[in-house]
Design a protein that fits this description.
37% helix, Aspartate Aminotransferase, domain 2, alpha/beta, globular, 386 residues, seven-stranded mixed beta sheet
């Protein structure tokens, strides 16, 4: 099995622990882990248990025995201030779509705020700044107001005629741990003007901590969305809200595969292992994240590289500037064009896969030894002009 070499294509044949193997027989360290969904590791200890559900059926279109358990775990251990009934669907995009529909129905208002640099999936209205944004009517984009992220000027634009503001507690485009003050100001302002606050925890939920970004920063939203880690590698989305919001009548949420028994079985097992700390220990995930940032930043500074690692817990990004960035706009202004793609391509030749979004998601399979190896490869990739 090759550990490096030029790949003609990136087609995966199999995945295990924190590794993927291409159809060309090349083994790579995986830093994307299903865009963060596989927090334990590929082909992990829960897969065999989830597979047993296949024999009992994969779709019923009526309630299954796992859903009530998932609801109870979320209420008791994750979000005691939210209602015990969650809305389940099949992806983060769908969860955010339902959350916005619920917010509009509850408030009777249509305008929704979202932040520049955020990512809430492929829903029309979220794609205005995306290069592939054709096919979305202007009238749909006009139902959303783009706000400056990590910038107090945003509060002037969050007004009482808005139904909600949606935000990731930590943005993938500039993941950071110094965002609590801004999030608290946002929480206070939304309460003051009567606008619902939606936390999009699709990426951060059950990854930054058992209670996601909300738990890390100690801030409670009115509505929350989940996906990725909650599904244990299977498609899932979930929406939770305060009781008076989620009980709003006349709102449609259905879908053929929503709350299917396979995904709900996976969610039940993931929540049990989070609660029991059996396969997921957040202190270990935080340690390898800190190691990655500290050691590489020390190297970048010593070698005078215009690169830094930023992140929060096990979620990281290499930025290609030595300047402090406040948000995605700063990153776009300071980074050379194509620097991320060129460096990721170089790492792939050295045996590391970095996804197109440039995020490094560490899992329980990324041991200290693996992360030290990864750090060494990145240092090797930095040799020569930056």
């Amino acid at each position: 099995m090759q550990r490096h070499g030029r790949l003609k294509s990136m087609i995966v044949k199999r995945a295990y622990n924190c590794y993927i193997e291409s159809d060309e027989g090349v083994k790579l360290i995986d830093t994307t882990m299903g865009s963060g969904a596989q927090i334990i590791g590929h082909n992990n200890e829960l897969i065999g248990e989830i597979a047993k559900q296949v024999e009992r059926g994969t779709i019923y279109t009526i309630p299954n025995c796992h859903t009530e358990r998932v609801n109870s775990y979320l209420k008791e251990h994750i979000n005691p201030t939210l209602d015990e009934q969650y809305i389940f669907c099949n992806s983060g995009t769908e969860a955010n779509m339902r959350a916005i529909r619920l917010a509009r129905a509850y408030t009777g208002k249509n305008l929704v705020g979202r932040f520049h640099g955020g990512w809430h999936g492929g829903l029309d209205g979220f794609l205005e700044e995306h290069p592939s944004n054709r096919g979305v009517p202007k009238e749909v984009n006009d139902l959303f107001r783009v706000l400056p992220y990590n910038d107090d000027r945003c509060f002037e634009k969050i007004t009482k005629d808005m139904a909600a503001v949606i935000i990731e507690p930590v943005q993938g485009s500039n993941p950071r741990s110094d965002i609590k003050e801004f999030l608290q100001k946002l929480r206070d302002h939304c309460t003051k003007v009567g606008v619902l606050l939606i936390f999009d925890e699709i990426m951060t939920g059950f990854r930054l901590s058992a209670k996601g970004g909300s738990g890390v920063f100690g801030i409670l939203p009115d509505i929350v969305t989940y996906g990725k880690v909650l599904g244990g590698g299977f498609p899932i989305g979930a929406v939770g809200a305060r009781t008076e919001i989620v009980k709003t009548q006349g709102v449609f949420y259905g879908g053929t595969f929503s709350a299917n028994p396979l995904s709900m079985c996976a969610a039940k097992l993931i929540l049990e292992t989070i609660i029991d700390e059996k396969h997921i220990q957040y202190d270990k995930l935080n340690r390898v994240g800190n190691l990655f940032r500290d050691e590489l930043n020390e190297f970048f500074i010593a070698e005078e590289k215009k690169m830094r690692v930023i992140g929060c817990g096990p979620l990281n990004r290499i930025i290609f500037t030595d300047k402090f960035i406040r948000n995605r706009e700063d990153r776009d202004n300071f980074e050379p064009e194509n620097a991320q793609k060129e460096f990721s391509d170089k790492l792939r030749e050295l045996g590391v896969f970095v996804n197109g979004n440039g995020l490094y998601h560490f899992s329980m399979s990324h041991t200290t030894e693996v992360v030290e190896e990864l750090i060494g490869i990145i240092k090797q990739g930095c040799r020569g002009p930056s």
